[in-house]
């Protein structure tokens, strides 16, 4: 054939692009004719040419003879690119290549056997497990080690017993591979089978890693011993393993055996070694070290854990570690505080607040007078979290701070103190409420909310500033006091729409029959967002009266109000509400129709055939797509005739593409 002659010549060209295009030309001939030239291209010096050959060969669905030929390429010792291409094709063929590969596990060439084992492991077909188990006895150590490794990769439990039986039979590296495989499979094994191998310096680390994955409480002593090993890699492996084991142990009592064993290391030299490993770049190891140090509770780890708090991802772990240390850790931070820079001091203050350390009152009072914004804020918040009532006056003084963040921190602190000292916080709130500053009156709302003082919140609902009124309305609603309904009803006629929205939403939160009629009246509000808030609240309250009102609204609503009405109806149980949602399918607004389709699609398919003709021929392309998607999802293959008919009539290319995609998925 002329094509083959040309391709053969082009594959000898020095030009890479010419060779690549030659491979593409092979797509026009049969696999029988193209096979040998494809094998040549698979060994080309250019990865681009090899890639084209691999892709084309996979697309030609190689037969049994071709697969045998590809396996034969694995013996090409002088061309690594050709072997790699053969591996890629065989892995790409997956299960189709497995029978032929299994036959070559007894190949005379040990390199071929090694390739076959690795390919089978990558494919992961569980039918290859028995043959891979047999390969554990292969005379070549590289093949037997590869068999162990790939049994672990596949993860079949049938491999556990043979792997344990083979442990220690051959060289140390074979055992290394077996331990790794057992760890990957994760099936519990008797600890006493593994621990004897820890005496070998090379195997100690993999034994420890394996115990973390498959051991039980009996493994704890060896893992704790590993934390003090002179080899850093072993110490780090032990830290990771003991945390992994602790997470696997069932029950609090089992986990406590780990915690108790670690706690006994406090004050020992083991802690120094673990601290020395904190500079690791391996994030997983660092996480494990921090957890272990926290469980040990040695005060020497307080400062390193403090530094770990700078990392948001590690913050929770470090705080947990410091919490485990208790007073010793907090006192260590207090001792370090005077020499720390301002950022470190702020972190220490935050830690004290998180952990409720009461011994820092003097230092927090001093920090509230700092020139640094972050320290003043952190100290105010921490004092509130700890519950330091003696610092209430100092915190209150920060309400006049020039920095918003500090004022925010002071309010935060006072809110936390409110339950313990309501009279003091109420006096501060009263002063703020009488202030000419809008911001101060807004802060008063927050304090009265923390105090649960509905009467004062009701007064602030009459404030001259709409922001204060809105905040007071929201805060009052959050109290969930039925007696507050009348105040919220009054706010429904506020001149500011945001206040009215807050009132309508709040009435839905409190609920009750008293709220229904005022909310129905608000459905006539001039602001559409007020009407939306009223709709949602009526939906939360439920009942026939709200349904009557929503039904009347549907006849005249449009846009966002209509959409909200439909969404509200969808949340109300009962056939009447569902039937009202169907009326949205008749809207002239395509966005409303799409919402109705989506809502109805969540509740079954009984409506689909009724509206099928109308919606598949709807004037708006987006509605046609939305309905076609819903019908395909709800009816499955039953939708195919209707989608096919719609495709034959459809003129819009976007809709045609979507219909073809849906039909393809259903086939």
From TrEMBL:
One Pfam assignment: HEAT_PBS
Name this polypeptide is given: HEAT repeat domain-containing protein
Record organism: Geobacter anodireducens
SMART domains registered for this protein in UniProt: EZ_HEAT
